[in-house]
Amino acid sequence: MPELPEVEALARFLAERTAGRTVADVAVVAVSALKTFSPAPADLVGRPVLDVRRHGKWLDLTTDGPHLLAHLSRAGWVRWYDAVPATTPRPGRGPIALRLRLDDGSGFDLTEAGTRKRLAVHVVDDPAQVPLVASLGVDPLSPEFTADRLATLLAARSQQVKGLLRDQRAIAGIGNAYSDEILHAARMSPFALTTSLDADAVGRLHGIVRSVLGDALTAASGRPAAELKDAKRRGMQVHGRTGEPCPVCGDTVREVSFADRSLQYCPTCQTGGRPLADRRLSRLLR
């Protein structure tokens, strides 16, 4: 799933290439991806593109009228064309959910792999009209994300720290992969309780959130959209590396599986050498 660094890099990539251009055509290929009906996608046509921004993990193509918002979910992506293909994509014939063409012939597809279609497209007058955007928490790379703000979020209720990091209503933009990376760098169990962290641990976690995301954004910035997925994978220390040696201590990276996702961690670095129980209903070690 694209997370803050990749979505920010995509927003910058698109902003650079759409600047000064006008929307010439919008084709909704997968009707199920479109979650709004007014304004219509056709209302974007003829509108100059003012910017492409990010809200958490949402992309926001801003015109002088409606906004085109897209959440790429787990398997969505952006495919850029310097010259959009002349053929019209057919519904149900491939991964394309939406195609946008600009007045110079360039443009992009929003695509989604797999059979579980979760990519979401909204055409709205104001991003705040999308409830999931309006409810987003603090951006972890913004000045508002301070150690005190994080301490308040951690103390609000007792929950697993990984769950808080992934909660978009608390901190916007972090998903499964970067929460694994942050907790590994912080040498913290994913199942540690938020209310168990002292001031030193909170301060350390705050700094690591910013450094892990900032470093990932630096690595992603300037890359074409087609290279961002591989760049993300190469930068991972533990996420997606089950069975490989931890690059810090050499212990074997382990996994805890859930119904629709999994997390990865290093026992030596994060849990005092103890493996976590890999069953959803087991008693979890902390």
Q: What topology does this entry show?
A:
Blueprint: H1 4-18, E1 23-28, E2 49-55, E3 58-63, E4 67-71, E5 76-81, E6 96-102, E7 107-112, E8 120-124, H2 131-134, H3 147-155, H4 161-166, H5 176-185, H6 199-220, H7 228-235, E9 254-257, E10 262-265, H8 267-270
Antiparallel strand pairs: 1-6, 2-3, 3-4, 4-8, 5-7, 6-7, 9-10
Helix pairs in contact: 1-6, 3-6, 5-6
CATH topology of the largest domain: N-terminal domain of MutM-like DNA repair proteins
> Based on helices, strands and strand pairing, what is the structural class?
alpha+beta
Q: Mind telling me which CATH architecture of the largest domain this is?
A: Alpha-Beta Barrel
Helix coverage percent = 25-40%
Low-confidence region ranges: 280-286
Oligomer: single chain
The percentage of residues in β strands lies in: 15-25%
* CATH class (first level) name of the largest domain: Alpha Beta
What Rg is obtained from the alpha carbons, in whole angstroms?
A: 20 Å
Secondary structure tally, helices: 8
GO molecular function, one term: class I DNA-(apurinic or apyrimidinic site) endonuclease activity
Domain Formamidopyrimidine-DNA glycosylase catalytic: 2-119
GO biological process, one term: base-excision repair
Keywords: DNA damage, DNA repair, DNA-binding, Glycosidase, Hydrolase, Lyase, Metal-binding, Multifunctional enzyme, Zinc, Zinc-finger
